[in-house]
Design brief:
Low-confidence stretches: 1-11
Number of helices: 19
Order of helices and strands: HHHHHHHHHHHHHHHHHHH
Radius of gyration: 24 Å
Number of domains: 2
Helix content: over 70%
Structural class: mainly alpha
Mean pLDDT: 84
Amino acid sequence: MSNNAKKPSFLNGAAILAAAVAIVKLIGAVYKIPLGNIIGDEGKAHFTVAYNIYNLLLTISTAGLPLAISKLTSEAHALGRENQKRKLFRTAIWLFFGLGLVFSLLMFFGSAQLAHFMTDDLARWSIQALAPAVFCVCLLACMRGYTQGQGNMVPTAVSQILEALCKLGFGLSLAWYFLQLGYGVEISAAGAILGVTIGTVMSMCFLIFYLLTHRDTAPSLDRPDSAGVLMKQVLLIGVPITLSNSAMSIITLIDSKIILGRLTAISSLLPETPTALYGQYTFGMDLINLPPSFVYPVTMSLIPFAAAAMARRDSAEANRIISSAFRLIAILAIPAGVGLSVLSGPILRMLYPAQPYAAQAAAPHLRVLGIACIFICVMTLTNAILQSYGHERIPICTMIAGGITKIVMNYVLVGNPAINIHGAPISTLCCYAVIVGLNLLFVWKYSPEKPRYLQLFTKPVLASALMGGAVWAVHGLTLRALTGGEYAYGANALATAVGIGAGVVVYGILVVALRILRAEDLRSVPRGAALIKLLHLK
């Protein structure tokens, strides 16, 4: 009975967090598109440099320790040790308070040194504006770990969405306001990133209020462990996870430094400043993070079923679920990546009308990054599969291998004046291709029934290629039929929308005609039964 009672709770919790993550990522994508229009390519470079530093410190302070708190809280909660649970939270909150304070002070007072290290001195204002967010997020991580450990995912989900909405509203408003006052793009970028800080403050206030109004004061007779013992338990569980998860953040930070450093070294041979070129590259990076936002909930809804099948040693069921997950990801990711690649220029010009030159310059980057987007989606799935198989360390090792590939290739390609910033998207594509190649190898190795990759991917690739040709042709014909030419915003936007619509119709027909999607692929997905009936799947 206990197992049956816990299962729905787990699945509901996973669904809540998956939905929250999808909403947060979608808001993040919506935030970055108008932001690029407001602050331009150089402003985006300052913003990204500061955010990469913040992300590293954030990973160090919150990657593993909240998971440790969640695990220990869950254990105490299951055993009815309420005093143990409360003392664990009181002890851990001071640990996070100290970590957050140290890293916030480091970012604020060391902003000039950090910006200089990253070869972008004007990023110091953005780094300072983001410094208080580290302190707030550390406390947020502790509180979220505590509530999740009690099986309550709603406070985490609400706080994440609140944080994202504040970032969107305050960040864009402040960026625009500072530009209207006549400040430079470096101050406008700092205003944009100040929205992130405001979001973390609001989210922290919400969770504090929630905990104060939902205090469990029920008496308990258990005797809690000492603060020293509890701290040791948190560190023993959390530190190894933190070290492993920090690898990709460190690689990303080093990668940003290498790109800006190599561009600076050949700046006399470049047509634009290194920060402008790097900012144009980030325009493309913002868009390729959108499709994985929709892939993540699909993955989260399927993987718990695969883990349960593995636990029951039902290899046939596990293979069916994994194959369905691969087909769904292929059906979603491959056409999205092909579409971004084929219509890279028109899409960027449609989304960034206030920055036409930067949009045009970013088009070659997105053409390559669109294909990289496919690998990012497959990486998300294969990481989850390996974790459900109990091989959590393998994705970490493969990400490190991909990150090293990216760093080496950027050093060589970006430092070549003939290639310069165009080497960055190539190295990104190769990075994720290496990760996915290794992940697929390990998934095949550890799967009870070996997945048939050729059978799973051939039809979606064929359908996506045909769709890409249709999109390109329809967009071109529509543009020629309209007056105003390619660079008239209205004509380009309409032709792009018509091309995308045609692509959706063509691809939908091909999915049904080639029988790429099966009824079993949708049974575990929310509203799957209705989709099966609508599409007449068998």
